[in-house]
Specification:
Low-confidence stretches of chain B: none
Number of domains of chain A: 6
Strand content of chain A: 5-15%
Distance between the termini of chain A: 99 Å
Oligomer: heterodimer
Strand content of chain B: under 5%
Strand order of the largest sheet of chain A: 1-3-4-5-2-6
Mean pLDDT of chain B: 90
Largest sheet of chain A: 6 strands, mixed
CATH superfamily of the largest domain in chain A: P-loop containing nucleotide triphosphate hydrolases
Largest sheet of chain B: none
Number of strands of chain B: 0
CATH topology of the largest domain in chain A: Rossmann fold
Helix content of chain B: over 70%
Structural class of chain B: mainly alpha
Radius of gyration of chain B: 27 Å
Shape of chain A: globular
Number of domains of chain B: 1
Chain lengths: 839, 123
């Protein structure tokens, strides 16, 4: 039963209602000021000439003011420390769990004459000042929320009994939610979450406002977490804050480390770990601690993770844990010291000197007894490869082998998965002394928490307000479009980029960082439009058929099928976990399959250069898969290209010639939108369009066209036929978004192709101010010469080069062709004829 | 409510204060690393010591012995400063704590007497 009248918080409500603590606070200040003023007069009394009051009465008034100030101060402390936060222990009344704000909101809603209980509570909570910033971040004004809620709820009245019952239900579910978050009391935020969770009209309001319940919860909790961590930090007397100061005696008890200090950085002194207490890589930190106190002879660990996956953050969190005495007894208050290898290498003259210094560093660290060494990118200094893409020709593996097995030598090596495969696995003996700890990239959720943390610092420096949808968009776009770095780095990079973009463009704008600015930046960075489609992009997508047909003749069915598939992809109707589009182009040689791919690359990715072309006849052996995806030693050609530019059109020419194992690789790519390269790194294909071409069964298409069959209707028959012949496996064909048939070209198509190609030459000449007149006779002749039934239009380009381009080039070099000439070509002799300009 | 006030004033606040006070008493021990300082009181300064080497060479042995003795002596000398500083900090903390507690307990009486005294002065 929700008995608010007899609840422990009712006393605070009573005080607030009748004694106005805000007002008392003002009086307290007045009394204090009066006391100080009168004291000053009292002490300077002998120097004042015209005193209208006696010295005693001034002292008396000062004492009375002091007394009044003191009592007010005590009463206000009592109110905020005791009455506002009464003890909960032993209470079984639901109302006792409410904090002051929540209790006031519930009372107000119960007694509201104007609105139903739920609406009144919702409005009261939304209006609370503590949520103002969170709603601003979500780009919601409280007026707008209130207005929408009122429209949706209407002005329903409810009787008193119902109101109490409703209140009880909401408080009960808020209590459960608060308990799930280890909260002792129910703050107003939990009431708001409870009403959003349980009330259909609240949910509808949020829907109409275009915001999700989870976004509101995340934003409010983020803000509450920040406030509570600030509050804790201010309480300097707490043990956890006192521990942040490093102790002097401990350093005196440890050994002197001359060389180590010279070539290192003490991570323990960099208190840069996250103050919101983000629990990132907790498991890995624990593994590292276990490794460092291991009793099996070696106390070293190897952190294996991509640069940017949070390896530095992990170390910094570990350093904090150790420096604040929250780790194992034998690790607490030790120093984590990173050896600055590059500086050591550059400053030592020769390998001998380097070895001597490094040995001294290792010895000092052991003798000091409180040092945990760190070597970053340790694979660069190990093994006969010299790690080393030329980082340094230094091999410390011998020395490491000597030290890692010694008791008291503690080292954390940091390496990448690639470095691990390339170097460490070939040095099994040293590796056996290290505990391998894999550092996976942060999850999107963890990355959001890290972004929130960075956001506060950025906002403090720039005075911008970063909206929550912008942060979510950063995560979403970084996840989808950036694959050259892991989370959290790629998201942090985008955040930095957005701030710079904002600073660059903020002369006129507001100080609010919006989702569209993230879209604009990412689009600029990857040269692909992202976010809501811009008008230009919409035009491209809507007119894709026409754009392709500017360069491609015929193949209407094929082009329309491709355009539809891409429109579906861009409108996000498709499952975002696969490629943007995947097509199998089937048909005879020279009918425009490759040209279509080029047109698509230009239309969709902005340039033909965005095409990665693989001739699959080069991959007929099972072993040739290494060329594509690489192995531990060498990176693969294909995976490197995709990794460097994930927004590409991948053209797999003559796919039927590839080895079945290679087809299996593409099966996985088509299915999951990702694959793993030879060194175990994930390669993302979700931003690629994959087109495989094949002229398998070309003769069937040719026959069908001859017989005048409709290609769309013939397609299924054709597919059945090629499956029957075993040219492709059914599971392979099924993976493509569309299997597209290209028809053989008819004469009229060839004429158009000749026309197009000649126009390309005309445009080129126009830049040199030479006008080429294309006559219909020339077009006719070229169509005739360039056509070979078995090669389609493939010979056309060669013929035009030979008959037209070559003679024009010769004429230009010999000087017989000059600027502002107008020429045409004789279709019989292929000689240049100069004509007057008015032709 | 008045009972609650007294409970808060004379029980809860002194309890909180005691907690902070003991935090500080503990903190000085941590700050000056009492445990490590005592454990290594007779150890060489910064663990700097000379090896006696193999075999027995009286001259070398003596040189190492004197050097190490000197290192231990410096260690002891400096560490005793640390212990003295710790003692001073602890004594000051205890003294300030007692003064504050006494003041806190007497504060309501001080306020009441200030009020009465003030009235007397004015009248």
């Amino acid at each position: 039963m929700l008995d608010l009248k007899n609840s422990r918080i009712s006393k605070a409500i009573f005080v607030e209602k009748y004694f106005f603590p805000g007002m008392l606070d003002i009086f307290k200040v007045i009394f204090a000021t009066g006391f100080i003023y009168l004291s000053a007069i009292y002490f300077s009394y002998p120097f004042l000439n015209s005193a209208s009051f006696s010295k005693e009465s001034i002292l008396g008034a000062a004492l009375i003011l002091f007394s009044l100030w003191g009592w007010l101060w005590l009463i206000l402390c009592f109110f905020s420390q005791k009455l506002k936060e009464p003890a909960i222990k032993g209470s079984d009344s639901l109302a006792d769990f409410l904090d002051l704000d929540s209790a006031k909101a519930i009372i107000k809603a119960i007694h509201s004459k104007k609105y139903s209980f739920s609406l009144s509570l919702f409005l009261t909570l939304v209006e609370m000042p503590q949520f103002k910033l969170a709603f601003s971040r979500l780009l919601l004004s409280r007026e707008k929320i209130s207005k929408t809620a009122q429209e949706i709820w209407g002005k329903g009245e409810a009787n008193e009994g119902n109101r109490l019952e409703e209140a009880e239900q909401i408080v009960m579910s808020a209590l459960k939610m608060a308990a799930a978050q280890d909260l002792e009391r129910i703050p107003a935020s939990q009431l708001l979450f409870a009403i959003m969770e349980s009330h259909p009209l609240a949910q509808k309001t949020l829907f109409n406002l275009g915001v999700s319940k989870n976004d509101i919860m995340e934003t409010i909790l983020w803000q509450e977490k920040t406030l509570s961590s600030q509050k804790t930090r201010k309480k300097f007397w707490l043990k956890e804050n006192l521990l942040k100061k490093s102790s002097i005696g401990r350093q005196w008890a440890a050994g002197h480390t001359y060389y180590l200090n010279l070539y290192s950085r003490d991570l323990t002194n960099f208190k840069q770990a996250l103050s919101l207490g983000i629990l990132l890589h907790e498991k890995q930190i624990k593994q590292a601690e276990d490794a460092l106190i291991s009793s099996n002879g070696s106390t070293s660990a190897l952190l294996v993770g991509e640069p940017g996956a949070g390896r530095r953050m992990l170390l910094s969190n570990l350093a904090n844990k150790i420096s604040e005495g929250r780790s194992y007894r034998s690790l607490n208050f030790n120093r984590i010291v990173e050896i600055n290898m590059p500086s050591l290498i550059t400053s030592s003259q020769g390998i001998e000197e380097l070895e001597v210094i490094l040995k001294s560093i290792f010895n000092e660290a052991m003798r000091a007894g409180n040092v945990i060494l760190v070597i970053r990118e340790i694979h660069n200094y190990i093994g006969s490869h010299f790690g080393a893409r030329d980082v340094a020709k230094v091999n410390i593996s011998g020395m490491l082998a000597e030290y890692v097995s010694r008791p008291g030598f503690r080292l954390i090596g940091i390496t990448t998965p690639e470095g691990f495969n390339r170097v460490w696995q070939q040095n099994q003996e040293i590796l056996s002394h290290f505990a391998k700890i894999e550092v996976p990239p942060a999850t999107p959720k963890e990355t959001l928490a890290i972004l929130e943390e960075s956001t506060l610092e950025i906002e403090r420096q720039t005075k911008f307000l970063i909206s929550f949808p912008a942060l979510e968009e950063i995560i979403e776009l970084a996840d989808r479009y950036i694959s050259n770095a892991p989370f959290p780095k790629k998201a942090l990079d985008v955040l930095d980029g957005v701030i710079i973009y904002k600073i660059r463009n903020s002369r006129r704008g507001s100080n609010l960082v919006l989702k569209k600015e993230v879209d604009a930046l990412v689009s600029e960075k990857i040269e692909i439009p992202v976010g809501e489609a811009s008008q230009k992009e919409k035009d491209v997508l809507l007119n894709l058929e026409d754009i392709i047909h500017q360069r491609l003749v015929g193949q209407e069915e094929a082009v329309s099928e491709i355009a539809n598939a891409l429109r579906r992809a861009r409108a996000d109707i498709k499952n975002g976990k696969r490629t943007l589009g995947s097509f199998l182009f089937l048909g005879p040689t020279g009918v425009g399959k490759t040209e279509t791919a080029k047109c698509l690359a230009r239309a969709y990715f902005g340039s033909e250069k965005k095409m990665i072309r693989l001739d699959m006849s080069e991959y007929q052996e099972a072993g040739s898969i290494k060329k594509l995806i690489g192995d531990g030693e060498n990176p693969g050609y294909f995976t490197t290209m995709v990794r460097e530019d994930p927004f590409s059109l991948i053209l797999l020419d003559e796919i039927e010639k590839a080895h079945p194992n290679i087809l299996d690789l593409f099966l996985q790519i088509l299915d999951e939108g990702r694959s793993t390269d030879g060194s175990g790194r994930i390669v993302d294909f979700r931003s690629t369009i994959i087109i495989a071409t094949s002229n398998a069964g070309a003769e069937l298409v040719r026959d069908a066209v001859k017989k005048g069959k409709n290609l769309s209707e013939y397609k299924q028959e054709f597919i059945d036929e090629i499956l029957k012949k075993g040219l492709f496996r059914p599971e392979f064909l099924n993976r493509f978004d569309a299997v597209v048939l290209f028809r053989t070209l008819a004469e009229e198509h060839l004429r158009k192709i000749a026309q197009l190609m000649l126009e390309e030459i005309k445009n080129g000449l126009a830049q040199k101010e030479i006008n080429l007149v294309i006559t219909s006779d020339l077009v006719e002749k070229m169509a005739e010469i360039g056509f070979y039934p078995e090669f389609g239009a493939r010979e056309m380009r060669r013929a035009i080069q030979e008959k037209v381009e070559n003679i024009i080039a010769k004429a230009m070099l010999s000087g017989s062709l000059k600027t502002s000439d107008t020429i045409k070509i004789d279709p019989e002799t292929f000689k240049i004829i100069k004509v007057s300009k008015d032709i | 409510m008045i009972l609650l006030f007294f409970e808060w004033y004379y029980k809860e606040i002194p309890q909180k204060f005691y907690k902070i006070w003991s935090n500080y008493l503990w903190f000085w021990g941590y700050y000056f690393s009492l445990g490590d300082t005592l454990r290594t009181f007779f150890s060489p300064w910064k663990r700097i010591y000379e090896n006696y080497g193999r075999g027995f060479d009286i001259q070398k042995w003596l040189s190492a012995f004197v050097g190490n003795l000197f290192s231990c002596f410096i260690g002891m000398f400096l560490r005793s400063f640390l212990i003295i500083a710790l003692l001073i900090a602890e004594i000051l903390t205890i003294a300030i704590g007692i003064l504050f507690l006494a003041f806190w307990l007497a504060f309501p009486l001080i306020l009441i007497s200030a009020f009465i005294k003030g009235l007397i002065y004015i009248i």
